[in-house]
Amino acid sequence: MELFKEDTICLDLKAQNKAEVIGKMVNMLDKAGVLNDKKAYELAVWAREEKTTTGIGFGIAIPHAKTNAVKEPRVAIAIVKDGVDYQSEDGSLAYLIFMIAACDGEDDLHLRVLARLSRKLIDPVFRSKLLHASDKQEIMIYLKQT
User: Are 86 and 53 in contact (CB under 8 A)?
Assistant: First the structure.
């Protein structure tokens, strides 16, 4: 199972706020054929955001949802070059967004992905490599190192 694919990576997402980020990333997942029900998935992401923000700080947000609206698990990645207010706990803008789409039956997949990403993303050198990647293939190389 390949969670990272080039068709769900955006090197320069244009968004003014958290709602635009979520909407555009859900569209990216839907266009890639990952979702059974785009609207239901987006509602699940928002339901998770209502519990507490997934803006974890350090310029990172990891919105996610586990629902039967997901047909194939995937992680969408977006770089927001100017940053976006994602209501992060530390008040920082988010530049790296990882949206995890997990199927309802896969109990701990999203937790494993969160843990794996979090371990790498605490490294400022790794974050910098992602932010300054020149193409999607370069991002894929870095992610395979996780």
Answer: yes
Nearest to residue 93, comparing CAs of 62, 119, 61? 61
Model pTM greater than 0.90?
yes
Catalytically annotated residue among 64, 66, 74, 110: 64
Residue 64 designated active-site: yes
**How many angstroms separate the CA atoms of 91 and 81, rounded?**
17
pLDDT in tens, 5-64: 999 999 999 999 999 999 999 999 999 999 999 999 999 999 999 999 999 999 999 999
The domains of the chain are located at 6-144
- Angle of CA points 104, 136, 7, to nearest 5°: 40
Q: 39: how many CB neighbours lie within 10 A of its CB?
A: 11
- Report the topology of domain 6-144: Mannitol-specific EII; Chain A (3.40.930)
